[in-house]
Amino acid sequence: AQADLLQSQKMEVLGYLTGGIAHDFNNLLTAVIGNLQLAMRRSAGQAELQRLLLGASRAADRGAALIRRMLAFARRQVLHPQAVDLQALVGGMENLLARTIGPAVRVAGLLPPGLWHVRSDPAQLELVLLNLAINARDAMPEGGTLIISAGNETVLPGATHPAELAAGEYVRISVVDTGVGMDVATLARACEPFFTTKPVGRGSGLGLSMVHGVAMQSGGGVQIESQPGEGTTVSLWLPRAEALPVDLSAGSAEAPPAAV
Ligand code: ADP
């Protein structure tokens, strides 16, 4: 629990920092881009000057795109929980997953009928599954199998001591790969923000932190099992949603049919 707290505090601080910096930087960039546009207009007919200004303005645009990504990351810290049907969610991601993972990896979904709905943020859960699929793909450069399985559970394993179980109603969703796996040292650090073993430009080291953050903020947990050379299983425990849709007034299309 101590480690979980530290982890979510780190992510929270990271969210604040990124959010604050991105916001201030965005204002600065707006001024830079505005002035550049003005200078471009005033320098009509001066080809050399225009070329320099265009270069500066393209760089500023790239900066603005980066800032938008940072702001999106900062916003991700806030969950909008609702009742989620994992069957529908995973079903709706089939094409995206297949495209992300590529032809070398076989994807199999094993979501049993009667799976409880969970209480979490559906948009974040999609990102969670996408992150896990990307990790699985990277772990299987020569191809392999990716399985998404799920089941109703009545206990939540402790994050630091998996044998310590807490009673409750949860759905476990696991992403299983037959990839390179992780050694003990990598496994111990895998969920740390910015920890990555991938080459620069390939990995941000934020995938599993995000997965961990979403599971913890939903009131669930994460467990990673890995064997070097054999593969990795990342499991999320998410709390069961109440039988009734969370927000009746919203009339959300995502709300499950009321079971009363
Ligand atoms: P990133 O994927 O950007 O490196 P993550 O936080 O998602 O960031 O993962 C951190 C590290 O954990 C990876 O660099 C990799 O070493 C290890 N890892 C994560 N998922 C897997 C997996 N499915 N198989 C093997 N190693 C993994």
Automatic annotation (TrEMBL):
Protein name per UniProt: histidine kinase
Subcellular locations according to the entry: Membrane
Domain Histidine kinase: 20-242
Organism lineage: Bacteria, Pseudomonadati, Pseudomonadota, Alphaproteobacteria, Acetobacterales
